[in-house]
Design goal:
mainly alpha
């Protein structure tokens, strides 16, 4: 019984694991690879869309709790 509770706790913490998002924002630039303009713009738009999604998720959660 305790093992299944521990497994459920691990599964719920995976939902709130933002390490991949933080790695995406704060990764080091590769000196051997110089990306072109299109790739840089794509990553910029991706970062903006991730931020907007997280902000909307926070606002939605706050409104649902109140």
């Amino acid at each position: 019984m305790a093992n299944s509770e521990n497994q459920e706790k691990k599964e719920t913490t995976n939902y709130f694991d933002f390490s991949e998002v933080l790695k995406y924002y704060f990764r080091k630039k590769d000196p051997n690879n110089k990306p072109n303009l299109n790739l840089r713009m794509m990553h910029g738009i991706n970062k903006i869309s991730i931020l907007l999604f997280l902000m909307a998720l926070i606002i939605w959660t706050i409104r649902r709790l109140m």
